[in-house]
Amino acid sequence: MKQVGTLYFFCGKMGAGKSTKSKQLAKEKNAVLLSEDEWLSSLYPNQITSFEDYLKLSAQLKPMVKKHVQNILSVGTHVVMDFPGNTQKQRKWFLDIASDVNANHQLIYLNLNNQQCLRQIAQRRNEQPERAAFDTEATFIEVTKFFEAPEASEGLNIWEFSGKE
């Protein structure tokens, strides 16, 4: 039986620490790390000026990324995806990536409250001034409207972190 990799992906509100945790996990698991932000900024430089732009361009990226990730998993390499899994539809996409190639998966749920996330977003604005225009409380409030916590009924392997670890 051919060994396949494991797909790791994340759920957490804006500012929960998904990108930071994905980098740590990729090192720990000796996995390929794929970042949606990096792909989008490379493929569509300066073209994302609104949440609607992000949604449109992210959707264009997904078919290409899906095939790429499945190829990596199929040769036995683990993949950590720093792409949002913040809605049932997004998580279904990850589950399909893994199940189509009989790979295992792990959803890492960073279950932080709004205050914890806003504190981390403020810190990120200071550390990465180029993100200040997008990393605002108003954007957080807008994006959080779409957030859906993962549920057991979705058939996912979930690791939950509350931010107190």
How would you describe this protein?
Keywords: ATP-binding, Nucleotide-binding. InterPro entries: P-loop_NTPase. This protein is α/β, with parallel strands linked by helices and 165 residues long. The chain has one domain: P-loop containing nucleotide triphosphate hydrolases (Rossmann fold, 3-Layer(aba) Sandwich), CATH 3.40.50.300. The chain contains 6 helices and 5 strands, in the order E-H-E-H-H-E-H-E-H-H-E. It has a 5-stranded parallel beta sheet, with helices on both faces. Helix 3 packs parallel to helix 4. The model has no long low-confidence stretch (mean pLDDT 93).
Q: What labels would you give this structure?
A:
5-stranded parallel β-sheet, 6 helices, 165 residues, single chain, alpha/beta, globular, Rossmann fold
Percent of residues in β-strands: 15-25%
Instruction: List low-confidence stretches.
Output: none
Structural class: alpha/beta
| Radius of gyration (Å) | 16 Å
What's the tally of helices?
A: 6
How would you summarize what this structure contains?
The chain is α/β, with parallel strands linked by helices and 165 residues long. 48% of the residues lie in helices and 16% in strands.
What topology does this entry show?
Layout: E1 6-11, H1 18-29, E2 32-35, H2 36-43, H3 51-74, E3 79-84, H4 88-100, E4 104-110, H5 114-127, H6 137-144, E5 158-161
Parallel strand pairs: 1-3, 1-4, 2-3, 4-5
Helix pairs in contact: 3-4
